Amino acid sequence: WVTKPMVLVVLSALIVFGVTYAMSRKAAVVPGRLQFAGEAVYGFVRNGVARDNIGAPDYHRFVPYLFTIFCFVLVNNYYGLIPFFQFPTMSRIGYVVAIALIAWVVYNGVGIARHGVVGYLRNQTLPPGLPWWIVPIIVPLEFLSNILLRPLTLTLRLFATMFAGHLLLILFALGGEYLLLHSDNALAIPGGILSFVMFIAISFLELLIMFLQAYVFTLLTAMYIGLALADEH
Length: 233
Fold this sequence. Notes:
Low-confidence stretches: none
Structural class: mainly alpha
Largest sheet: none
Number of strands: 0
Number of helices: 7
């Protein structure tokens, strides 16, 4: 009943907690290297994600949630490049669905708390200034886009990217290993070397993509929260 992805998810939560605790345990006015690194990541999420997309004064209360999501997704993504782990947990769609549904509950919840159910649905589905005859067309489309499909797009963007990158790494690694060690074809050795070169190149590309996917997931969550709190759609 205990699978490798389950262990990695629990381990990632412990890693995030342990690293952030170590960064903040001896907080000082003049930060050390560890505290400086933690403050840099926290400031990146606070200023570059929460403040820019939610705005003052509301963004402060969402920074801990967004910081946690960013770190959690980032650690689980980078598992795909760590020897012996070599499995990005977010390539399992169930875990992505879970954090996407949490985001859905959060931004809809704060929107309803701010505007009420009717007011929130009006803001999300009825842009101001529409002519009356187009309202029956726009409202269902806006409801579908803003209320129902956002968690789906959050899920598919992160899951598909991590899953595809993981498959590419497996393809070139195992393909190179087979061509170099098990094939009798004359072109096997140069083909195997090329395959390993592609594996290394894609690994470096994945370093950037894994970071960007954690950033985009956090950014979109912040944008949805900001739109839910806004007075107009």
